[in-house]
Amino acid sequence: MKLVVILDYDMTIVDSLKVFYRVYNFLLKKFFSEEISIEKFKEMFCENSIDEYKKYPEDFWKEFKVLYKASQPDEISPMPGLDEFIKELKELGADIYIITGRGVGAEDVEKELELLNLNSLRGRVRTLKDSEGEHPFDKTEEVRRVLTEKLDYKCIMLGDYVDDILAAKKNGCIAIGITNGCKSPDYFTGSGADYVVNSLSEAKDLIKNIASH
Fold it and tell me: Are 205 and 213 in contact (CB under 8 A)?
């Protein structure tokens, strides 16, 4: 049985909070003529309350998806333990994919992977640039496309957002939520997550255990 591991990108394997903050603040200023501090932003991120902060027009998140990419190399960095995590997945013989909610081309994400010395993941990236999901960050169809040609597989999906959990469950994948050390586990379990981890190190050990059964 083939192990298929689908990874969210931002704030799951790559720390891009600086990009998130920059783009979000830019659009707050554009649509609402206001900005927030980095401290307030981090608080909302950990509380998963960004979605409720404003009554956003539809174009807000559509534009957000398109603008969400690093403008400087120092805006992104690997999440702690990423090298060991990817090494373990490869040792397990996993078929690895990245599905990001960004509305950019895969080549834009692959440029970042190159900056982070993650060239082995090039060609494994899927984005929501042309997605027609129920809402801007719905990954359900993209996950389905990845799995369409797979036979006799076990699918695991790891992400830091409720849409990752929902997309995993709709496609019969084992859903793992990652808290980044600040989100509540209830956020993920309440959305149907099978497991919750605090870090990629914990995710590595969990996936190894799942793969062995």
Answer: no
Do the beta carbons of residue 66 and residue 107 sit within 8 Å? no
Name the CATH superfamily, with its identifier, for domain 2-15+75-211.
HAD superfamily/HAD-like (3.40.50.1000)
- 8 A C-beta contact, residue 80 and residue 42: no
Question: pTM for the whole thing?
Answer: 0.96
How is the chain split among helix, strand and coil, in percent rounded to 5?
Answer: 45, 15, 40
The two three-digit tokens of residue 164, written as one number: 């990752």
- Tokens for 17? 């909070």
Least Cα distance to 48 among 168, 176, 185, 143 occurs for 185
**Model pLDDT for residues 133-177, shown as the tens digit of each residue:** 668 899 999 999 999 988 899 999 999 999 999 999 999 999 999
Name, in order, each residue with C-beta under 8 angstroms of 83's C-beta and a sequence gap of 6 or more.
none
Q: Residue 111 burial (CB < 10 Å; 0-12/13-18/19+)?
A: middle
Give me the residue spans of the domains in the chain. Answer: 2-15+75-211, 17-74
- Rg value, the chain, Cα: 17
